[in-house]
Design a protein that fits this description.
Length: about 220
């Protein structure tokens, strides 16, 4: 028997106010990282190749700089309340990101979010001045050639839950847009959906996500 509801959330630019990976690269990498980013957005380079090249442009990183960076990253003011609402209403919260779990863990810990959240993302560790990357969720048949194949996980959770909501904002979410029951979109994801005639609910923050999920669960 399927469970009731799951909300899958992108992380960078969705839960965080800025894309933490892009902000990190903007602060610490050679500006040529933007050329690689443009190639990634156009689908000319995979997430894995882009990440390796971009993080290879970072020199002189220290643990102090890392700590200061994570202290500067802010999240949506309503995300913690959203997590509490989901927990109280037996709604599963999942973070699905083509970024890094290290970033996600540090930021979630900073904001003292205690709700149990499943996280699927790329991984890295910083050792002796080197970023060591791992991509445990890469799938050989991923059409986007992503580090974390979001379509694979959406299809997986569709089999487990009666209703799957998705909250996203950017290019890494495009492939999931027409595969979920209800899509919350903003920024480039909303423009993509308009161009492709994919139904979506525009949102500004997670308070609006709470209101819409409440309406749909109460009217079921």
């Amino acid at each position: 028997m399927k469970k009731k509801d799951a909300v899958i959330c992108d992380f960078d630019g969705t839960i965080t106010k800025v894309d933490s990976i892009n902000e990190f690269l903007n602060r610490f990498a050679d500006k040529k990282w933007l050329e690689i980013e443009a190639g990634w957005i156009e689908g000319k380079i995979s997430t894995i190749d882009a990440m390796k090249q971009q993080f290879g442009m970072i020199k002189g990183m220290t643990n102090k700089k890392l700590d200061e960076f994570f202290e500067s990253i802010e999240i949506d003011e309503h995300f913690n309340n959203f997590c509490k609402y989901a927990e109280q209403n037996n709604i599963k919260v999942i973070i699905l990101s083509d970024g890094f779990k290290y970033f996600i863990d540090r930021i979630i810990k900073k904001y003292k979010i205690e709700t149990e959240i499943e996280i699927y993302s790329n991984e890295f560790k910083y050792e002796k001045g080197e970023f060591i990357m791992n991509f445990p969720n890469k799938k050989s048949n991923c059409k986007k050639n992503a580090g974390t194949c979001k379509c694979y996980f959406v299809e997986k959770f569709k089999k487990l839950y009666e209703t799957v909501y998705y909250v996203g904002d950017g290019p890494s979410d495009y492939c999931t847009a027409d595969k979920v029951d209800f899509l919350f979109a903003k920024n480039r994801l909303s423009e993509y959906c308009k161009n492709k005639n994919i139904p979506f609910i525009y949102y500004n923050d997670f308070n609006e996500v709470i209101k819409n999920v409440r309406i749909r669960t109460n009217n079921r």
